[in-house]
Amino acid sequence: MLSMTAPAGSLVKTTLVDFPGRVASAFFLSGCNLRCPYCYNKQLVENSSSENYVSIQQLFDHLEKRKNIISGLVISGGEALLSPYLETIIRTAKSKGYSIKLDTNGTLPEKLAGLIQNPETKPDFIAMDIKTSLEKYKMLTASNETFSQIEDKLKKSISIISSYPQTDREFRTVLVPPLTSKDDIQKIASLLPEDASWYFSQFQNNSCLSPEYEKIQPYNDAETAAIVKFAQSFIPNAKLR
Length: 241
Description:
Layout: E1 9-15, E2 24-29, H1 42-46, H2 56-65, E3 72-76, H3 86-95, E4 99-104, H4 109-117, E5 125-129, H5 147-162, E6 169-175, H6 182-189, E7 198-202, H7 221-232, E8 238-240
Parallel strand pairs: 2-3, 3-4, 4-5, 5-6, 6-7, 7-8
Antiparallel strand pairs: 1-2
């Protein structure tokens, strides 16, 4: 039985940028099946400390207090689809009138499909992180999955998310130089629907999961602009966030 009072994740009480068009709270559930070397959420990925975590009960206590201000709840990670708390959080939040945005890395399409098939757990908005071209995903995971297995999972998730209206979905890529060359960008673009909202963010070389990535210099402004322009030649609604 799930404990509603055990530490479950990290809470951002108010965000104006994580859920398009809504004032929201964001809840970051612990645990992840990827080990992206540039990740800065070490505690969530490694599930190494619950010192600053709050419980599901505390999450809903907060939402109740802010119900006249907050209209959305972002559920992120780590990888939220790994969490045993996810369905309970979505059901409870939706029953209280909150819109749900789910952030996922796209590696668990069966679980994603299961959520969507049930109106009580279907997210209102989905954002998928696409880290790099498919062949480089082996750099991000310690699993024994083959290239074809990884490819199959990511393509299934993209297909599921692409069934949503264009206004209720987005794809996101962090511009990490070893993972996002122009060749990588072109390969990622080939996976996305042409009407995709594709958002880029700058790599920050501090507090990385792999210390080696703290030695990597982010793209400068001119390089970043060139990459975004290149992406727009395939996906017109590609933007830097």
